[in-house]
Design goal:
Number of helices: 3
CATH superfamily: PK beta-barrel domain-like
Helix content: 10-25%
Shape: globular
Radius of gyration: 14 Å
Number of domains: 1
Pfam families: MOSC
Oligomer: single chain
Number of strands: 11
CATH topology: M1 Pyruvate Kinase, Domain 3
InterPro entries: MoCF_Sase_C, MOSC_domain, Pyrv_Knase-like_insert_dom_sf
Strand order of the largest sheet: 2-1-6-5-9-8-7-11
CATH class: Mainly Beta
Structural class: alpha+beta
Protein name: MOSC domain-containing protein
Distance between the termini: 13 Å
Strand content: 25-35%
Order of helices and strands: EEEEEHEEEHHEEE
Length: 153
């Protein structure tokens, strides 16, 4: 389970910008992202497997940036149950305090919105239903990089 794409948008409705790394601050979110400082919407996570299923339904590719999610992972069903935790970072020892990575906690499902109809085209929001990933809060600070390991705790 690895991070395969990272994106931020500096303001609402701005184009998503691809990044090799993002800086996450506990209780604040992703530095430079439109959701910085919100109460709980710190990081959004989706899987490439869910994007592939959405693409099959739509009949066209769904690039990670089109969904407007921050982190895209491979090899993991993104948890949707509130309170579930992910550790993202170079370590893989399952440390619960985030010492070896960024500790994230699921707040809610990331429901697709009407913006998906623009970014993905007609049918985008429907194709992402139950495939949109999750919204998580940052419990610890650190850097998330492409290729980082993702561990479900």
């Amino acid at each position: 389970m690895r991070v395969v794409a990272l994106h931020v948008a500096p303001e609402r409705h701005a184009a998503m910008e691809e990044r090799a790394a993002i800086e996450v601050v506990a209780g604040r979110g992703v530095v430079g992202d439109r959701w910085w400082g919100t109460r709980h919407r710190h990081v959004s996570v989706q899987s490439v497997e869910a994007l592939a299923a959405a693409a099959a339904e739509l009949g066209r590719p769904v690039p990670p940036s089109a969904t407007r999610r921050t982190v895209t992972v491979a090899g993991l069903d993104v948890p949707t149950d509130p309170g579930a935790r992910l550790l993202v970072g170079p370590g893989d020892d399952g440390a619960q305090d985030g010492a070896d990575g960024v500790l994230l906690e699921v707040v809610r499902v990331a429901a697709p919105c009407r913006v998906m109809e623009t970014s993905m085209g007609p049918g985008g929001a429907v194709a992402l239903r139950r495939r949109g990933g999750s919204i998580l809060r940052a419990l610890t600070s650190g850097t998330i990089r492409l290729g980082d390991r993702v561990t479900l705790l």
